[in-house]
Amino acid sequence: MKHVLFIQHCAPYGSESPQEQIDALLVAATFGLRVALLFQDDGVWQLLSQQDGKQLERRTLGAQLQALELYDIHDLYVDAASLDERGLEVAELALPAKVLDEAGLQQLVAGHDLVLRF
């Protein structure tokens, strides 16, 4: 089984990229790939629970991320430095993501057959 790491690095509603990546990772999981998801840079904002895409006429990403479990996507990670740079705490995150330091990030990337950064 192929292991695919998706890296979300964009803010939730600044572009179509986050939505496109969610769609792609759901398709990958549906076709039996082992999928992991890393939130990095401004992508960490996607993990906050107080989101509402309706004001921007978009689907709310937070609600879609809650459904990842239904697709057997349980490997969620967040970059510790990205959280720190934005003044965010783990307690503010809506999903249980494992926090990784630089060494952990390197191991995560090395352990996957394919890495996709949108």
What this model shows, in words?
- There is one protein chain.
- Helix content is 30%, strand content 20%.
- With 118 residues, it is α/β, with parallel strands linked by helices.
- The chain has a single domain, classed as 3-Layer(aba) Sandwich (Hypothetical Protein Ychn, Chain: A).
- The chain has a 5-stranded parallel beta sheet with strand order 4-3-2-1-5.
- Strand 3 (75-79), helix 3 (80-85) and strand 4 (98-100) form a beta-alpha-beta unit.
- The protein is globular.
- The relative contact order is 0.25.
The level of helicity is 25-40%
CATH architectural grouping: 3-Layer(aba) Sandwich
Oligomeric state of shown chains: single chain
Give the strand order of the largest sheet, numbering strands 1, 2, ... along the chain: 4-3-2-1-5
Helix and strand composition category: alpha/beta
The N- and C-terminal alpha carbons lie at a distance of 22 Å
Unreliable segments of 5+ consecutive residues: none
Which CATH class is shown? Alpha Beta
Helix-strand pattern? EHEHEHEHE
Kindly state the mean pLDDT as a whole number?
88
How many discrete structural domains?
Answer: 1
Radius of gyration: 13 Å
User: Per CATH, what is the topology?
Assistant: Hypothetical Protein Ychn, Chain: A
- Describe the global form: globular
At the fourth CATH level, what is the homologous superfamily?
DsrEFH-like
**Biggest sheet character:** 5 strands, parallel
Which percent range describes the beta-strand content? 15-25%
- For the secondary structure, the number of strands is 5
